[in-house]
Design brief:
It is built from 9 helices and 8 strands. 32% of the residues lie in helices and 19% in strands. Strands 5-2-6-1-8-7 form a 6-stranded mixed β-sheet, with helices on both faces. A two-stranded parallel ribbon has the order 3-4.
Length: 289
């Protein structure tokens, strides 16, 4: 039996708008490609993570803050949707144990942090997770982004979290590759395509050794500030990259007609566990012991 640890990849996902999986018939465009991508992640991994750590664009604090509740509640951080969407439940357990490990790793890296036992799952977490793991049996916890969106701070956060990949924790940065709320629809077609093409060139096509520096200077990309007037929905990507800084990126999802016109993508960083030599015999054992 192999004694090599199973190393999980990291993900940056475009999580869609609001409670979209429950109201697809009310929204423009075809959201099935996004849904199929999220549904495929568990099978792609080939194993069940010990926990999923979500760095959501929808939780911003002055300090990086980790969710510590053993059973997080719900936080409906959207507006204008049908009443039933404010009663949706995603009863996944939290993971105080992983939360404590996160704080230890941040302290060891010289990064100050806080914890919050009251914070509920926001839609950057419970919406994609409900598609990925609809049975809500995998522990899920969130980690906030830091106000100010400093790129180097979020890259450093990812680097500090990297050991979790060998401990069965799936790190997911949850945002959107295009997030100009005034340009969803035809007005965003060209700008979203321009920025998306640059992002692919930076995280997939170019040398891994140059990726971090290019992402540090993302504001110089074509249509950068049009795509992200504020970078709250982009900065989770930097966390996912920091946690897998030496690993090649793969475009895991790409669609050119989200909400009829927007170009959006999602990325994976690192080799899938099922593609790692010797993992099959003992991968699940290593993640659960």
């Amino acid at each position: 039996m192999s004694t090599e640890p199973v190393r999980l990849p990291t993900y940056f996902i475009s999580h869609g708008g609001g409670p979209w999986p429950w109201i697809k018939d009310l929204l423009p465009g075809n959201l099935e490609p996004m849904e199929r991508h999220l549904q495929a992640i568990p099978a792609d991994l080939g194993l069940t993570p010990r926990a999923v750590l979500v760095v959501s664009a929808h939780w911003e604090e002055r300090e990086f803050t980790v969710q510590t509740s053993p059973q997080p509640t719900m936080y409906y951080d959207y507006g204008g949707f049908p009443e039933f969407t404010y009663h949706l439940q995603y009863p996944s357990p939290g993971s105080p144990e992983v939360a404590a490990r996160v704080r230890d790793l941040l302290t060891g890296a010289g990064i100050t942090s806080a914890e919050d036992a009251q914070r509920g799952y926001d839609h950057g977490a419970f919406v994609p997770l409900a598609v990925m793991y609809p049975e809500a049996s995998v522990p899920v916890l969130q980690l906030s982004i830091r106000a100010g969106y400093n790129v180097d701070d979020h890259l450093a956060l990812g680097r500090a979290l990297a050991p979790l990949r060998d401990e069965g924790v799936l790190i997911v940065g949850s945002g959107f590759t295009f997030h100009n709320m005034r340009a969803f629809g035809e007005a965003g077609r060209v700008g979203s395509a321009e920025f998306d093409a640059w992002l692919k060139s930076a995280v997939v096509d170019g040398p891994v050794s140059e990726r971090t520096e290019r992402l540090r200077n993302w504001v110089e990309a074509p249509s950068a500030r049009f795509a992200h007037p504020a970078e709250d929905h982009l900065i989770p990507l930097h966390v996912a990259v920091g946690a897998a800084e030496g690993d090649r990126g793969v475009m895991a999802y790409h669609q050119e007609d989200v909400y009829d016109a927007i170009v959006a993508s999602s990325y994976r960083f690192g080799v899938l566990p099922r593609e790692q030599a010797g993992w099959a015999a003992n991968a699940q054992e290593m993640l659960t012991t």
